[in-house]
Specification:
With 396 residues, the protein is of the alpha/beta class. Helices cover 26% and strands 26% of the residues.
């Protein structure tokens, strides 16, 4: 039997729950369905601090049932296909769910198998990653037990959850090496396919100064393409004019895996040529189907994929869905705001905030490009509280 909801939301992550909560706050009693099979909901920004030994990983997890907004229907199934011409989706279990309005927010898929040797090597032999709840504790074990040699940190080509996260853990690791007295016999390397350490000039200058002062080696335009855990070697492709490949031996490696949209998104009528959910970057309305909206990591928005971006996107989606319900055209606009709290040590953080034009869009009156203890406290305590008690409740 086909089910039906006035508003159907695909994805019970940050974006989906926030939109549902705000819709129900604005219009109590609205028929909202949330499609997501996961039993747990995670505050993933905390995983950098878990990997750095500052929090237990359990602090980042809550039961999904506890974050589903009151009044919403939780559909514990996985979305499998979109059929926008008939206003319905299909689930992996063979179910069919109809909708009047659809909000697509399924997040990203971590493609561990796109780097040969990574999937099977992860979690042992000094191969770690903060992007896995299952393995994030092993990151801290690798850092804590490091006794010298080469510590390699990598970032993949393409969009990732929080573009600064691949290097944040490196700063915590380097400081730990100094505290443990092994820094002098250690080589700390960051390999990134990007032409600069960060995309926004204001914050890039600050980070470039930090890596220079700490003796961190940055390999720009270098992309990890293969891992050889048995011999502890990383094969890195050079993306500069010289090209070629470089083999780097390591004593520990932190890998950020390639990421992308789920197949049910990339192969659907809602996707653009690159497989992302095609939405207007201002209204967040799907470019072909007027009763469909998208936000969060799966959307084709040219901005960094962060929870802070979702915090600004969600009200736009909510306002525009409600406008359509009222017979009006969507008028709310998202300006590309995003934020990346760049942890630079156990007592410092650079709070990067910027828009589509990569222009700073800062919240405070002081110089946010300067590492500050107060901003680290914001990340450790303020932002998690804002997330659990504000965003997911529809209040922020």
């Amino acid at each position: 039997m086909e089910r039906h909801h006035r508003v159907l939301i695909v994805g019970g992550g940050t974006a989906g729950i926030t939109v549902a909560a705000q819709l129900l706050d604005r219009q109590p009693g609205l028929d909202v369905g949330i499609v997501d099979p996961a039993e747990g909901h995670f505050y993933q920004p905390l995983w950098t601090l878990v990997g750095g030994g500052m929090f237990p990983r359990e602090a980042s997890r809550r039961a999904m049932r506890s974050v589903i907004p009151r009044g919403a229907t939780w559909i514990r199934e996985a979305a499998e296909a979109f059929e926008p011409e008939s206003n319905r989706i299909r689930t992996a279990g063979g179910g069919v769910i109809g909708y009047d309005y659809l909000v697509v927010a399924p997040g990203l898929v971590l493609n561990w198998d796109k780097i040969p040797g990574l999937k099977n090597g992860l979690g042992r032999d000094r191969v770690c990653s903060n992007y896995s709840y299952e393995h994030v504790n092993y990151t801290w074990e690798c850092i804590r037990e490091f006794r010298g040699g080469t510590a390699l940190f990598t970032q993949p080509t393409g969009a990732v959850k929080c573009g600064g996260a691949p290097q944040k853990i490196m700063y915590l690791a380097e400081e730990t090496f100094r505290r443990n007295g092994v820094r002098e016999r250690s080589r700390v390397v960051f390999a990134t396919p990007t032409p600069r350490i960060f995309a926004v000039d204001r914050y890039a200058r600050s980070l470039e100064q930090i890596v220079a002062e700490r003796g961190i080696e940055v390999l720009l335009k270098h992309e990890l393409i293969e891992l050889r855990p048995g011999s502890r070697e990383a094969v890195v492709r050079r993306l500069d004019e010289g090209g070629g490949e470089v083999v780097i031996g390591y004593d520990m490696i932190h890998v950020t895996p390639p990421m992308g949209p789920a197949r049910f998104v990339s192969e659907s009528p809602l996707a653009d040529a690159e497989g992302w959910l095609a939405v207007d970057k201002s209204t967040l309305r799907q470019t072909k189907y007027g009763n469909v909206f998208g936000l969060g990591d799966a959307a084709s928005l040219p901005t960094s994929k962060t929870g802070a971006a979702v915090r600004k996107q969600a009200p736009v989606v909510v306002e525009n869905v409600l406008a359509l319900m009222g017979g009006k055209e969507p008028a709310a606009v998202y300006d590309g705001y995003t934020s990346c709290p760049l942890v630079t040590g156990y007592g410092s953080l650079v709070l990067a905030e910027f828009d589509y034009e990569k222009q700073p869009a800062e919240s405070f009156w002081f110089d946010q490009a300067r590492p500050r203890y107060s901003m680290l406290m914001l990340k450790k305590y303020g932002l998690p509280a804002m997330y659990w008690h504000g965003m997911l409740k529809g209040r922020i």
